[in-house]
Amino acid sequence: MTEVRTGGCQCGAIRFRATKLGRASFCHCRMCQKAFGGVGGLLVLAHDVVWTRGAPSHFQSSDQVKRGFCRDCGTPLTFETANGVDIAVAAFDRAGDIVPVVQLDRAGRLPWFDALHRLTEPTPEEATGKAQWYASIVSRQHPDHDTDHWEPAP
């Protein structure tokens, strides 16, 4: 039985579904760092991708790769080559179910990457203050599921 996976961008302008996923990888290359605005790109090969709402805009990041993103909110969505389409793992509604199995371009990783697990956590007082601040936020982010109609909070 094929499992349908859904996802989309942060603002909800773009939604997709895929019925088959391949290998998930974490890429440390400088292009992925820049495209994701982070330490790299977490991507999974996706087959039978259907854009169910909107479609990504593209940036041709090299002579062989174009990257899809939401023009409205900037969410990185795809890494596209002649060999197929990878989708950003965090763009899936159930991103935690997609486990990376390989790291690519480890030589490009940021020098402090391997020490991230040693970062300290906030003190209990700081955590309480942050929790109160988080509780006060009105999210305009699209929910992690498809909806017939969705409007962000004003």
Please characterize this protein's 3D structure.
The protein is α+β, with helices and mostly antiparallel strands and 154 residues long. It has a single domain (5-113), classed as Beta Complex (Metal Binding Protein, Guanine Nucleotide Exchange Factor, Chain A). Helices cover 13% and strands 32% of the residues. The protein is built from two helices and ten strands. A seven-stranded mixed beta sheet has the order 6-7-8-9-4-3-10. The protein has a three-stranded antiparallel beta sheet with strand order 1-2-5, with no helix packed on it. Strand 1 and strand 2 (15-18) form a beta hairpin. It starts with a strand and ends in an 18-residue tail after the last helix. The mean pLDDT is 90.
Rg (C-alpha, Å): 17 Å
Strand order of the largest sheet: 6-7-8-9-4-3-10
Number of strands: 10
Total domain modules: 1
End-to-end gap: 41 Å
CATH architecture: Beta Complex
Here the CATH topology equals Metal Binding Protein, Guanine Nucleotide Exchange Factor, Chain A
Q: What is the string of SSEs from the N terminus onward?
A: EEEHEEEEEEEH
Measured by DSSP, the beta-strand proportion falls in: 25-35%
Q: Name the CATH class.
A: Mainly Beta
**Which blocks of ≥5 consecutive residues have pLDDT under 50?**
none
User: Helical content, roughly?
Assistant: 10-25%
Largest sheet: 7 strands, mixed
What is the residue-mean pLDDT, rounded to a whole number?
90
Number of helical runs? 2
Note the overall shape. Answer: globular
Q: Which secondary-structure class do the elements indicate?
A: alpha+beta
